[in-house]
User: Which sequence fits this backbone?
């Protein structure tokens, strides 16, 4: 008996929760609404009852009755409010009927949808404020453009190699481009949401998903003008390099999932060391640092299309050079190319190694060695940038964690050979 009653009990709970929220939102409002906590509870029960009966005719009658009640309530309220009434409560009532229907056959899905409806209704004022005042035209345009890139263009591209050498897969290259746009957009949102107080750390990590080299250069320049902020700037640089290692795993997951388990060990070691170094730096700063930077990183453009497009072109060029080097010099050519390319862009070198491995032209050991050398070359470049551009005050707190991350990657490589 309890098994039969469970969907009805779930409907009562969800309908009552949604109804209470609606009743509280209209407290003291004119005109007085007929759709309150009791009505919403009964609407949810009617939905469950319609699904339980299993008779299409009875279910249709119950559905039409609820729809007629909701329409009549809306028309009465619209007339009394002289046309200034929204339809949120009425639409929520129809959704509650659907949640009740779902509760009979899919109780977990019904609970998820019901809680989702409740959250949307509860956050309605904040959603309105964010839509009207929290977003600029540039941010809305960037979001729409990213949706077109990810949901319109990507599905249309062929997911196969289109050249005789089997190198250029349009869908895979565009997916990399989409991911780079996505992480850049996510980074912008993170910095904007967290505000200036945590801008250096959050901005370093978020922007590091796209280009940790760019973050290192930007923060090193800041260290010249704000020497007292060397500690927080070093923390941001280390977090950017942690994010860079994560993005390497993301590239491997897209290009060649068979390589992902060993690549996770190879990059997981420096990620762990970098996080430990960051935690230690934050602890030290809280105890000893008295100054805080006043101008944290701000991402001016939500969607860095130019940077992402340049990255896609660089990826295609490195793929071509790596394949030619492999044909002329064998596996050693791939390793040498990866080491040179990694000094500026470790993700590109990783994609080249993973793609050529997927074609069966090199072994897993060679691919891992190529990724390792690309990573080490990239770390060496960043240490050079910090030393030359940032100076000694930034190098002292930055060098130990970066060197530790590089050493951890080497140790992990020899552990999984």
Assistant:
């Amino acid at each position: 008996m309890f098994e039969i009653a469970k969907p009805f009990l779930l409907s009562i709970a969800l309908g009552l929760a949604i109804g209470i929220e609606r009743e509280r939102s209209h407290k003291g409002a004119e005109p007085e609404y007929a759709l309150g906590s009791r009505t919403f509870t009964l609407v949810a029960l009617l939905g469950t009852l319609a699904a339980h009966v299993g008779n299409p005719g009875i279910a249709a009658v119950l559905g039409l009755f609820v729809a007629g009640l909701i329409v009549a309530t809306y028309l009465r309220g619209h007339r009394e409010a002289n046309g200034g009434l929204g339809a949120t409560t009425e639409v929520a009532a129809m959704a509650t009927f659907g949640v009740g229907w779902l509760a009979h056959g899919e109780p977990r899905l019904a609970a998820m949808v019901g809680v989702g409806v409740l959250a949307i209704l509860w956050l309605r004022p904040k959603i309105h404020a964010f839509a009207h005042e929290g977003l600029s035209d540039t941010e809305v345009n960037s979001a729409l453009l990213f949706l077109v890139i990810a949901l319109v263009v990507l599905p249309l591209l062929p997911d196969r190699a289109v050249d005789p050498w089997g190198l250029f897969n349009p869908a895979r290259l565009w997916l990399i481009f989409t991911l780079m746009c996505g992480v850049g957009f996510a980074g912008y949102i993170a910095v904007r949401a967290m505000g200036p107080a945590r801008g250096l750390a959050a901005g370093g990590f978020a922007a590091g998903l796209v280009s940790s080299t760019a973050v290192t250069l930007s923060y090193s320049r800041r260290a010249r003008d704000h020497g007292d902020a060397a500690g927080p700037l070093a923390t941001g640089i280390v977090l950017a390099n942690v994010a860079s290692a994560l993005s390497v795993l993301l590239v491997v997951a897209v290009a060649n999932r068979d390589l992902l388990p060993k690549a996770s060990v190879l990059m997981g070691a420096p990620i762990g060391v970098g996080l430990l170094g960051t935690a230690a730096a934050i602890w030290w700063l809280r105890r000893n640092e008295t100054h805080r930077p006043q101008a944290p990183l701000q991402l001016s453009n939500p969607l860095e299309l130019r940077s992402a497009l340049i990255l896609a072109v660089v990826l295609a060029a490195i793929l071509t050079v790596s394949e030619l080097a492999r044909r002329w010099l064998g596996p050693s050519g791939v390793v040498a190319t990866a080491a040179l390319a990694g000094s500026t862009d470790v993700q590109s070198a990783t994609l080249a190694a993973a793609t050529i491995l997927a074609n069966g032209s090199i072994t897993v050991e060679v691919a891992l060695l190529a990724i390792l050398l690309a990573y080490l070359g990239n770390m060496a470049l960043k240490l050079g940038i910090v030393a030359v551009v940032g100076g000694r005050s930034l190098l002292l707190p930055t060098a130990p964690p970066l060197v530790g991350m590089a050493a951890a990657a080497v140790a992990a490589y020899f552990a999984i050979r």
